[in-house]
Write a structure and sequence with these properties.
This protein is an alpha+beta fold. It has 3 domains: 305 residues, alpha-galactosidase from lactobacil brevis (Beta-galactosidase, Chain A, domain 5, Distorted Sandwich), CATH 2.70.98.60; 220 residues, Aldolase class I (TIM Barrel); 87 residues, Golgi alpha-mannosidase II (Immunoglobulin-like, Sandwich), CATH 2.60.40. Helices cover 19% and strands 31% of the residues. The strands form 7 sheets. Strands 6, 7, 8, 9, 11, 12, 14, 15, 19 and 20 form a 10-stranded antiparallel β-sheet that branches. Strand 22, helix 4 and strand 23 form a beta-alpha-beta unit.
Amino acid sequence: MILKQGNYFHLTNGQISYIIEVIDEHYLVHRYFGKGIRRWNDSGKVAYYKRSYNTEHGMGNISFDDFPFEFPYQGHGDYRIEAISIEQSDGISMLDLSYVNYKIYKGKDNLNGLPSLRAEKEHAETLEIICEDQVAGVRVTLYYTIYHDQNVILRHQKLENIGTDYFYINNIQSMSLELPSMNWDCISFYGAHAAEANLSRFPLHHGIQRIESRRGSSSPNYHPFFSIVSPDTNVSQGEIYAMHLVYSGNFLAQAEMDQFGCVRMQIGIHPDEFIWKLDPKAVFESPEAVLVYTDQGLNGMSHIFHRLYREHLIPKQFVNQNRPVLLNSWEAMYCDVTMDKLERQMKLAAKAGIELFVLDDGWFREGNTTDTSMGDWECNYEKLPGGIRQVAQKAHDMGMQFGLWFEPEAVGKRSKLYEKHPDWILHVSGYEPTEGRHEYLLDLSRQEIQDYLVDIICSYLKDGDIQYIKWDMNRPLTDVCSERLNGRQKGETAHRYVLGLYKILSRITSEYPEVLIEGCSSGGARFDPGMLYYVAQNWTSDNTDVLDRTCIQSGFSYLYPPILMGAHVSASPNHQTGRESSLSVRYQVARQFNLGYELNLECVDKNEVEEIRNQIEAYKVDRNWMKEGQFYHHDTNQNYVMWSTVSKNQEKCMAMVFRKRHDFFSSHEIFHFLGLNPHWDYYLEQDGKIYGGDELMRIGLSIPLEKRDQDATVWTLQKVGL
């Protein structure tokens, strides 16, 4: 419910409240965001007083230097981080946005050319607040969407040129939030290729703390997420203010603690790699930001994101659909692909219960390396007589679906496409373009390149032979310059690239909505909500080592439900790390996620083939309730990782405790369950005993003492009486 009472707006659903006040019929100020309140009666206002080395603005002793602006802009004495800045055609950089009007309506509108969350009329309401600067010719519309039953506010801005001359947008953030002076911690996720999504926590201090990507994509280095949390926050308690950007390009997330201890946090397109010329009557929309509040700790935050993205972000047709268990060909044969090899793998896969066979890289290469043919997408018939259609038919004849790997955004120097269109790549005139993995990147901002990629991919989909695409992207953007843009507008290239990518994905998914697409970017380098609007799952990391995967999957699962995260059982020794682990442990670390296999089945002995078949059968039994279940992180010491999934009705639970190494100092650990019904009794399959839900949560269980490193203990519970 959104209320307009006097000079303030109150957005509330009983669980959260968000309050904005209009001061002096001019300024929008932020008054509150947090746990729901019934009404606001002017409480919590700062007592201002006259002080030196400051500026005053006709409202008593109010100074803009610590004023809680709802959407702060440049000039007028607010020296903190700003959410919007422009440069007029005469070089003046100034804004004075004044409140004009508002509108409240049910549901929300889609963003133009950008992904956004769904919010139907029965689920949400939206507030639009219009502010203008008549001198600069700027109109800004601020959007706030609140769901009826979730602790979420969706934010974005629309900027219009209502003047008679152009201006440049230098910065427009998707959201800005003011928080009171308190002790706060920051939580973010950092990483690298093959080491994504590591949780980082540190105290917020005076000054600006920021994370960012300027690599052209959301990147594995920092995730487009930032949160401010109370110091007592753990998995089960504590206040969290979290923001997540629905965007796949350069981003900036930052928080500033000012001289009085007050905090301003923001997220949006990175202004250092961005400029946009806005002509009269033209419009620019910022990406959508998701703002979450909870006082239930990290699991509380996680559950909000999980439900939100599962129900309102990924393509509708996949919301309730089980994902097929797949076998990917990459680690079995890399680029050395032949029809005989594929057919032998398919036969073994079908016997094991695999539902989808995926042909990865190599099917179009002239040789068996990654330095040829990229961008042509012409099947190598010497490797695969009969082509892709014949390979797909073999998979279908064995009862499996078929999937194909593409890297649409890249082109190699040794390709027909580059020979014909060397000007199609991102490049700066007069300079040698930068290669990455033998590749350049196509300029996706150009319509003819978008058309080429759509036509190529759809030519493989048109006959219905392909049910799955793995969409890869294996390098960051460099030489970020489009030949079709002039002057300062070349600074628009990075954002136009992302918009072009979204156009391509939108056209393909609109024409072939039933094709399952898995996003990938050297693993998790472009794992973000923007991509998940078009694809129903993402490859979490190129690193499939179980020890590393417990960290990677833990990090991503704070934000994304496990069904969206690809988790593969691969070979031992692991191809990325060389570490050895049992087939059972590899499976247990993957089974609560989107299960797949990526290993050479011909190198697996008969007993392990049978074990894989049993694993897949067990996974299929549980996946219906697990995909909708509540996923929990558990507080443990550093030698353990514990995850559990509790069914929607609390009648079932599966928990996995992973021990990194055998350690005498941690041999007496007790692990506590979460999310069970305390009034019910549960049967534990592993020992045949019955325990109370309250007993399991308050007292817990200890794992058997096994003298092994990298060991997994699994507990499965079922309500007594089922």
